[in-house]
TrEMBL record:
InterPro entries: Caspase-like_dom_sf, Caspase_cys_AS, Caspase_his_AS, Pept_C14, Pept_C14_caspase, Pept_C14_p10, Pept_C14_p20, Pept_C14A. Residues 201-296 form the Caspase family p10 domain. The lineage of its organism: Eukaryota, Metazoa, Ecdysozoa, Arthropoda, Hexapoda. GO terms for molecular function: BIR domain binding; cysteine-type endopeptidase activity. Coiled coil: none annotated. Pfam families: Peptidase_C14. It comes from Euphydryas aurinia (Marsh fritillary butterfly). Residues 1-32 are annotated as: Disordered. Belongs to the peptidase C14A family. This is Caspase-1. CDD domains: CASc. One of its GO terms (cellular component) is cytoplasm. Residues 1-13 have a biased composition (Polar residues).
Amino acid sequence: MSDSNTQDNGSVENETEQRPNGGGDEGDAWGTLDSSSVHRYAKMPVDRNAPFYNMNHKYRGMAIIFNHEHFDIHSLKSRTGTNVDSDNLSKVLKGLGFRVTVLHNLKSGDVIKYLQQTAEMDHTDNDCLLIAVLTHGEMGMLYAKDTHYKSDNLWYYFTADKCPTLAGKPKIFFIQACQGDKLDGGITLSNRTETDGSSSATYRIPIHADFLIVFSTVPGYFSWRNTTRGSWFMQALCEELRYSGTDRDILTLLTFVAQKVALDFESNTPDMLPMHQQKQVPCITSMLTRLLVFGKKH
């Protein structure tokens, strides 16, 4: 007799795979679950238990930079210095083998349309996908030229069910934007005292696996940009990618990006004391299931 999964909405679903502990799995949700019973299939880019992502496809993949400097919204100032970020990031990503496209000051509808079109492309011969957004933002929202849109629209179209040729491949998102208006004043520290790995085997993955989403700051907080040198986050990210992008795994690299932003930067606005000597740290959300090392691309 097979086990069954009991969901918190009271429905019962037949279990198709026997669990090691013999028990049923319950979901921590309340209400109707949005799920499809249809099994979808996509090409396996790497063996089931491989520790590293396969970065040996024909191409590195697409890198799209949405660079927003000017806005139709009167309350939003122009983002002086963002073109420095865009140019530096583009140069670094080209050095890593990406095919880079930079899009300037698009309206929200055009941003969404470009994302949809990209998701509909064939990425079979690509290692991964990278999308960067440089703009104004607030909690859960990003600004295009004309209005705001939800930040999760960026990755919505690239889940494995919607973009199967990127299934099992890294999908990377770098977002330089405020997530609120809180300030981080910092604090001063003192020195007082499964086993089948054959390539013919099949395995299932969640549709949200293999995403890496990095915001320049933590939810609710301000994100800083120097009008001459660019944003703190992009300065640190480009430097780490330039010097360690081919040999460090991405989460180790991003840890050093966070360290650099947290320790090496501090706001300098003595004429505006509440904004003076403020700090910042990036926020990293990883759904990666393997180590990601770009390596050299010939």
